[in-house]
């Protein structure tokens, strides 16, 4: 894909450090057992680790409910986006009103 750019070296290093902190990589950058499990899950690393640990401690039902709730976008964030869209729509409507008024004035 020509439109994809390689990540910067600092981003790669930050990601590797994060995976080491989560126990997914060893210091010599090999996958750990939990890293291999996380690689098979189609979720964020932190949520995947929560699911794995929930299974280990036999509380997977509770952890699954928590991770499901965390994976949904906040309704308050959506409201803020709608307000921004409303503000833009209002600005466009005001512009069009002035434009039509000027056209009518010129005729």
Written account of the structure:
This protein is mostly helical and 107 residues long. The protein is built from five helices and no strands.
Short description:
With 107 residues, this protein is mainly α.
Name some characteristics of this structure.
single chain; flat
Task: Record the SSE blueprint.
Elements: H1 9-21, H2 33-40, H3 45-56, H4 60-71, H5 75-106
Helix pairs in contact: 3-4
SS class: mainly alpha
In N-to-C order, the SSE pattern is: HHHHH
Quaternary state reads single chain
Give the integer mean of the pLDDT values: 80
Helix-residue proportion: over 70%
Low-confidence stretches: none
Rounded radius of gyration (Å): 24 Å
Major sheet details: none
